[in-house]
Structure formats: C-alpha cells, structure tokens
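Supplementary Text 2. Reproducibility record for the structural model of the 222-residue chain.

All settings were left at their defaults, and a single model was retained for analysis rather than an ensemble. We include the record here because the model underlies the residue-level annotations in Supplementary Table 4.
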Amino acid sequence: MYFFFIYATHSTQNHSKALSALHFNDVSFWVQSQQQTQGRGQRGRKWESISGNLFLTCCFPRRKNFFSGQHSISIGVSLAEILKLFLPKQLVELKWPNDVLLNHKKCGGVLIEADDNIYIGIGVNITSHPDNTQMPATHLQAYEPVDINAIIIKIISTIPNFEELQNFEQMRHQWWSLAKNSVPYWSLREPINGTICGIDEYGQLLIQSENGDLTKRHQTFL
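Retained model, structure tokens:
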C-alpha cells in the first residue's frame, strides 16, 4: 500500500480523490497532510485543521459487499481502541456514529465518502482543538504526551483490516460498549424522542420509544 505525505492541502479527502483520478485508480493508498486549508467533517461541516494535528485519508477500491454504515462504525471503534492504547489513564468513548470522545469531549472523528473508491478520512486533535464547536472539544496532549507518528503507524497497520468485515455483529456490540455511557454528553443535530439503545446490523442508531417501538436514524454519507 502506498503512503503519501504532503505539507499542506485543501483536504486529504480531496487530495486522495485527485490522486485516484489521475494516477492511482484501483490502488489502495494513504495520504497524510501536516495542514488542511479546507478540512471538513460530517455533513460538510468545517473541520478546523491546525498544523500539529492528525489529518489522514485511506483510499481503496469499492467492493460489492461494501456497507458504508458498517465501515463507519468499525473504523470509529478501531480509532477509539487505538487511542486507548496511547491514553491508558483517560476515558475514551464514542458518539454516534464515529466521533471519538476523550473525557466526554470530542477529540477526533471519521468521514467516509465514496465513488468508485472508498475514502476514509481520519482526524484527531493532537496538539490543539477548536474552541467554538457544537460539542466541547479537547486534544490528546492536554492529558498526556503522545507521539503523532506512532499513532499514525498504528492506524495504517490496523485500518486496512476493515476493508473486508468478517464479524460486524461483534463490532456493533463493541461500539455500544464504548458509546452507551457517553450518551448524556452527546450533541445531536435533531432531538431524540426515546432512549438510545444501540445500533442495528447496518450501523443505524436504534431509538426505543416509551411504548417499546424501535426507530432508526440513518448516517449521512457523501
């Protein structure tokens, strides 16, 4: 698998799309940038991209059995578990679908986009975090010294394992164990009428009403 490092770009997602269109179609690769000028998160929200933080995209050819929701959940779980290795004394949790929380504050997230390829964007606040956000934010080095290069090496050696999902049932239970206690700290776009009780086999959020009926909230993908 190829790995590209660039000092600055609009976004690692867009850079990956350009590489795929021009030279690397049907090839898996990673793109890391030290700085993004037009970083974005879910639903097109701006992702503040200050130098020193982690901006990374994995690109791989789309497969027939690809389910965006499953990958979104699985990669969020993977990222949370990786950060737990580097922050063993801190509380690492998840917010639906794949925002990573550090002591109830957002420190990272995942953005998935697709055409003929799948683009998995990963952002983690390492040295700094934005102040004016919908949900309180933080960064890793506010709690413990961490090596960004060591985190990147761990990510690129782990994430490719999720190109072919073998057991999403186990993954969804792992996601819920990382998410269920953080629910009171979530900030969602629309109010929830009911109790959040997990995710389904496609990564949709399950909400149980007072009368016991289940409704599902879909993830947003581009």
